[in-house]
Amino acid sequence: MKKVRSLSKERIDEISALIGASFWDYPYEPGEGGLKPFFPSKAAMTEYMKSFVIAGIESGTIYSTDHGEGYILITDTNGNHTNFRSIVKMARRMKNALGGWGKRILSIIPKLRENCPMTSLILYSRLCRAVSRKLFSTN
């Protein structure tokens, strides 16, 4: 594994499309939907995944196999985490992929609770921790 320090826009788009397609095209069981019900299109899913790829590059938390066949975003409690600026930018990209903060995002909340109740709590918790660390840091 090697840390990814930069990628071309084309490569970011390619990786994001592959990740997005794997979530979009996955053969979910009846009653399951994964992330697919939250997005109006495969393109929106790709944009959402791109937010993670870009945040990982900006924060130095994304790694790849030696030849770039696979990518993983690794965070831990030892300081290897997405920085505040990247989280804010990632949230904006996610919001845009989901169609904004208006009615579309509000319609997603019940689906989120229904399909993956812990995911919303975990994501909210992580965002709150990141914001409080940044706001109340004495460094």
How would you sum up this structure, described in words?
Helix content is 58%, strand content 6%. It is mainly α and 139 residues long. The chain has helices at 9-24, 42-59, 84-97, 103-115, 117-136; strands spanning 2-3, 62-64, 71-73. The protein has 5 helices and 3 strands, in the order E-H-H-E-E-H-H-H. It has one domain (2-136). The protein is globular and about 40 Å long. The longest helix has 20 residues, at 117-136. Strands 1-2-3 form a 3-stranded antiparallel β-sheet.
Number of domains: 1
- Radius of gyration, whole Å: 16 Å
**What is the count of helical runs?**
5
Count of DSSP E strands?
Answer: 3
- Described by the principal axes of the CA atoms, the overall outline is globular
Approximately how much helix is present in the residues? 55-70%
Quick summary:
With 139 residues, the chain is mainly α.
What is this structure's SSE topology?
Elements: E1 2-3, H1 9-24, H2 42-59, E2 62-64, E3 71-73, H3 84-97, H4 103-115, H5 117-136
Antiparallel strand pairs: 1-2, 2-3
Helix pairs in contact: 1-2, 2-3, 4-5
Key phrases:
139 residues; three-stranded antiparallel β-sheet; 3 strands; 58% helix; single chain; 5 helices; mainly alpha
